[in-house]
Amino acid sequence: MLRHLTLAAALFAGTAGFAQQTDITVAMQLEPPHLDPTSAAAGAIDNVVYVNIFEGLTRFQEDGSVTPLLAKSWEISEDGLTYTFTLQEGVTFHDGSAMDAEDVKFSLDRARAEDSTNTQKALFAAISEVTVVDPVTVQVTLSEPNGNLLFNLAWGDAVIVSEDSIADIKTNPVGTGPFTFTNWVQGDRIEIARNPDYWGEAPALEAATFRFISDPTAAFAAVMAEDVDAFQAFPAPENLPQFEADPRFNVLVGSTEGETILSTNNGVAPFDNKLVRQALAHAIDRQAIIDGAMFGYGTPIGTHFAPHNPAYLDLTSTSAYDPEKARALLAEAGYADGFTTTLKLPPPSYARRGGEIIAAQLRAVGIETEISNLEWAQWLEEVFRGKDFGLTIVSHTEPFDIGIYARPDYYFQYDNPAFQDLMAELNRTTDPDARTALMQQAQTIISEDYVNGYLFQLAATSVVNAKVEGFWANAPTQAIDLTGVRWIE
Questions:
Q1: What is the pTM (predicted TM-score) of this model?
Q2: Is pLDDT at 254 greater than 80 in this prediction?
Q3: DSSP strands (E only) in 77-144
Q4: pLDDT value of position 71
Q5: Mind listing the pLDDT tens digit for each residue in 39-89?
Q6: Which CATH number goes with the domain that contains 84?
Q7: Under the phi-then-psi rule, with left for phi > 0, alpha for psi from -120 to 50, and beta for the rest, what region is 193?
Q8: Of the candidates 338, 340, 304, which has an alpha carbon nearest to the alpha carbon of residue 319?
Q9: Selection from 91, 53, 73 nearest residue 175 by Cα
């Protein structure tokens, strides 16, 4: 009898020793400047908080589709001007307060207010009124039909927040999501924990840590040592074949919404001259940048639109690599001897490595660049907000964001009234075929105006522990969605 008990105890101990892991450490290259997705352009914020901490009325799935979230259903009036949302019941914020229609009204009114600091305020421009019908019903009235409304409400910029906790949202985010914020060690990590009172399906993970590792060499060492369980957007693509050959890891290669561009300040000389911008475009060898900076990962683009979108046009031939043509265009523009400009680079390796290659390509046609390597906060302050730059390289990871070209005050300062009218017409249009025609017209305009140097669509390349499943391969929006992530035997 004693022997049997001892054996049973040993078996139990062995089973306990192999208990399934319920926490995960995910590395990312950039640290968010703060944790309010409704008041900053930094995608690193959404990486941490999107659908983990904060939720919107709708959400993006990994395949790019938009599905209900805090709104369980909706009805659209025949004229397309009124959306009546029915909310999930029993939803609470992490501080225990109830989430209801008043919070939806507060969030949408705050996002579209005259003094709003929401960097995607244009998403809400068509909303003329938000009305609380009852605690679980809210009505959104538009000034004109908007075929993008449900899509727009899925952005991280449109999450539902509580007025009671808004004062501290940047350092203590309080949402309705399946994870709660627990700790932030600046420069190192952010920690979140499973929300025991979550209204929906509970995630498998009990806790998660986001670690910030900016240096590619350190990133490689951390993954190889298994100090991290996953690295989203791994910054050293040259290491990916080594991970692919190691059975401990899975390398996920997917698509993103990240149009990587040589952003050009259209508001300052000489880039206010279309001939100069055209010369710039023809001086760039996209494939050399993809091969040299990204080790072959990336899809060449000739406009600001994702190649996996059914409405995409391949316009790369409009700005084909042709250095002789670039030099001739510069001479025609009055810059036969070239000129010097700034090239301000944020931390991601596609920018730093790509910047060195582009600088050499531009030098070959007479354009000298003064390279400045900026930290992310510096880049946001100098380039994005301050518009103090000639050239920069950045990947625009927001979904379907060609509408930024209709905003003259946007950081690359492109002001084309005809394009602005076209985007307004697109927003009003609901017929799929008509929308496709308008989207293709928009792509063509900015390609032929050479607004920016269009480089490549960023590939999603993540390295994940082979025992982890549910990690997104694609990136339809900037997010590290942990809601479906779990460890497997």
A1: 0.80
A2: yes
A3: 82-87, 127-134, 137-142
A4: 98
A5: 877 889 999 999 999 999 999 999 888 999 999 999 999 999 999 999 999
A6: 3.90.76.10
A7: beta
A8: 304
A9: 53
* Residue 403 tokens, joined: 């509408």
Task: Output the domain CATH number for residue 406.
Answer: 3.10.105.10
Does a structural domain hold residue 52? no
Last residue of a domain, one of 163, 196, 212: 163
CA distance 219 to 180: 26
Q: Is 67 helix (H, G, I), strand (E, B) or coil?
A: strand
Indicate the pairing of strand 391-396 with strand 339-345: parallel
pLDDT value of position 16: 45
Residue numbers of the domain that contains 149? 58-163
Axis-axis angle for helices 323-332, 274-282 (nearest 10)? 160
- Domain assignment present for 68: yes
Q: In the numeric block, which tokens belong to residue 13?
A: 């101990």
For the chain, helix, strand, coil in percent to 5 are: 35, 25, 45
User: Is residue 312 very low, low, confident or very high in pLDDT (cuts 50, 70, 90)?
Assistant: very high
CA atoms of 359 and 242, how far apart (whole Å): 30
Backbone angles phi and psi of 331, in degrees to 5: -65, -40
Last residue of a domain, one of 105, 137, 163: 163
Assess if residue 351 is contained within a domain: yes
Total domains in the chain come to 2
Q: Are residues 156 and 268 located together in one domain of the fold?
A: no
* Contact by Cβ (8 Å): 232, 47: yes
CA–CA separation, 192 and 56 (whole Å): 19
Q: Distance between CA atoms of 406 and 421, rounded to whole angstroms?
A: 8
Please report whether residue 464 resides in a domain. no
How is residue 38 written in tokens? 């409704």
Q: Are residues 266 and 383 in the same domain?
A: yes
